[in-house]
Amino acid sequence: MAERRKLRADAQRNEDRLLVAAAEAFGRDGANASVKDIAREAGVGVGTLYRRFPSKELLIEATYRNEVRRLCDAAPELAERMPPAEALRTWMERFIDFMAAKDGMADVLRVVLTDEGERLETRAMLARAIDSLLTADMRPEAHAGDVLMALGGISLIAASEGRRDLAARLIDLLLHGVLV
Fold first, then answer.
1. In angstroms, rounded to a whole number, what is the distance separating the alpha carbons of residues 57 and 86?
2. Rounded to whole angstroms, what are the CA distances from 120 to 19, 33, 49, 113, 127?
3. Helix 116-133 to helix 56-81 angle, to the nearest 10 degrees?
4. Contact, 147 vs 175, CB < 8 A?
5. Distance from first CA to last CA of the chain, Å, rounded?
6. Where do runs of H (alpha helix) occur along the chain?
7. What does the alpha-carbon distance between residue 149 and residue 86 come to, in Å, rounded to a whole number?
8. For each of the chain's 180 residues, which pLDDT tens digit applies?
9. How far apart are CA 27 and CA 137, in angstroms?
10. Residue of 7, 29, 16, 175 whose CA lies nearest to 105
11. What are the Cα distances from residue 54, in Å, to 79, 124, 168?
12. What whole-number distance in Å separates Cα of residue 130 and Cα of residue 145?
């Protein structure tokens, strides 16, 4: 993912709030989420949003990248403060929430994120995050890439059924398959 220049502290806080509000809005309303509502939820003016993200597509792309980064950054934090199984389960739940938000942005993401290398890089980043949560007391045949694919399947099934509770139950099954 491309490097960009550092923002002033206040501009960075505004961007962070915009990206969090956008992730919530896209997860809830899909690509039809209102940029005016996103700006209001972030506590900034719509002009601030458009100065940083001149189009909705750029906002969606930045939101997606930010959510991937946040999800990956959460793995070591969870591992540090929770027992291994709890950390892995918490991360899996966050992954399902990430996928729900991503599905809300799917139509625009297909247009904006067309680079196969970026898709593979994102998958590798997510697999590394999972790998950091797989500990020696878990099944050695539980590979991060396999867990990631299983989580993707869980996300698709739960979304197609419109049942977040189903995802939680399937995560429990997956987790029991990973634990010794």
1. 36
2. 23, 27, 29, 11, 10
3. 20
4. no
5. 36
6. 9-29, 35-42, 46-52, 56-81, 84-104, 106-112, 116-133, 144-161, 164-178
7. 20
8. 455 668 888 889 999 999 999 988 988 888 889 999 999 999 999 999 999 999 998 998 899 889 999 999 999 999 999 999 999 999 999 999 888 877 777 766 776 677 788 888 899 999 999 999 999 889 999 999 999 999 999 998 998 888 889 999 999 999 999 998
9. 35
10. 29
11. 38, 29, 37
12. 8
SS3 call for 179: strand
Name the token pair of 83: 């027992």
Q: What is the pTM of this model?
A: 0.84
Could you tell me the CA-to-CA distances from 157 to 91, 100, 122, 180 in Å, in that order? 18, 11, 21, 26
